[in-house]
Amino acid sequence: MNGIPLHETKIHGIITFPYSVYRGRIPEWIPSFPLHWHDDFELIYCADGQIQVTVWGKSYVLCAGDLVVLLPHAVHAIEQHGSDSGEYFNIMFHPSLFKGSEGDLCYDKYVLPFLNGEKTLDCFYPAASSFSQTITPCVHSMLKHRRESYTTSELMIKSNLFLLLHYINAQSTDAASDHKALQLSYSRLKNALYYVQKFYDHDITIQEAAGQCGFSESHFMKLFKEFTGMSFNAYLVNYRLELSAKQLAETELKVIDIMENCGFHNQSYFTRAFHRKYQMTPLMYRKKYR
Question: Does domain 7-175 correspond to CATH entry 2.60.120.280?
Fold first, then answer.
């Protein structure tokens, strides 16, 4: 079976207007949105309750009104915080929305620096922060008109996106040389994630994963923990559990077959690990999310 996609390549919105707003509830609709990245800018806005967002290995707890701004290619995940539930919105917009004719000076000056790593941005902004209060009217406007994004509100949406880009640029800073070097190392670590995606049902050693990235084992383990917020072995188990949950919800396969498909060889260990992550047994999970 296919693994869980890491590099999300789907078009959000339509080709001529790559913009979309998604509403989510954790854990009522989905238990989590696993580690991944994409080519779009993304804004995650917590509307109610609490959610946990992990970006480049660092976790943030979002309460109502808090938001996270993600630059393209940022590795991130959305999860339940403890036993809390939360409602949130994802606002996704592709950099090409800001591009006019060839040699567009505004695109080259205000968008490209984020894509090539020359500019960076803090990602977490509590509701009380000045940046959050500045852009929240734009956010609320886009949420209010999310159902007419491609019919009658395109100009309003696009004007809000340009205004949002202006504020993001004003908040950004030039990336230091050590930041660029770290991002390069993180890019190489994605090879280990791809390796897990391909061979999750095999026994994978740290030596093999480190070799995919060209790092020594010790350097790999240190960087991987910074990159994902967990050890490589913990990531591997978590990936297998996420895939198990997906198959439980979407297929008719027996639990024992799903367990083996996902790289688990001990049913007792699988059940304990699954319960520890989802606070329910595999059969209870299937009943809840089918």
Answer: yes
Let me know if the fold of 7-175 is the same as that of 178-289: no
Lowest mean pLDDT among 33-37, 91-95, 149-153, 240-244: 149-153
Please work out, in degrees rounded to the nearest 5, the angle formed at the alpha carbon of residue 241 by the alpha carbons of 215 and 124.
Answer: 70
**How far is residue 243's CA from residue 3's CA, in Å, rounded to a whole number?**
7
pLDDT, tens only, 205-223: 999 999 999 999 999 999 9
Q: Is 25 helix (H, G, I), strand (E, B) or coil?
A: strand
Per-domain residue ranges for the chain? 7-175, 178-289
Q: 178-289 has which fold?
A: Arc Repressor Mutant, subunit A (1.10.10)
CA distance 188 to 88: 31
How far out from the chain centre does Cα 63 lie? 18
pTM: 0.90
CB contact set of 199 (below 8 Å; sequence gap of 6+): none
Contact 14, 79 (CB under 8 A): no
Contact yes or no for 265/254 (Cβ under 8 A): no
Q: Which residue has the higher pLDDT, 287 or 290?
A: 287
pLDDT digits (tens, 9 = 90+) for 43-102: 999 999 999 999 999 999 999 999 999 999 999 999 999 999 999 999 999 999 999 877
Which ranges constitute the DSSP H helices of the chain? 105-110, 112-115, 130-144, 154-171, 177-199, 206-213, 217-228, 232-250, 255-261, 267-278, 282-289
Give me the helices (H) in 38-152, please.
105-110, 112-115, 130-144
Dihedral of the alpha carbons of 215, 178, 41, 99, in degrees to the nearest 10:
-110
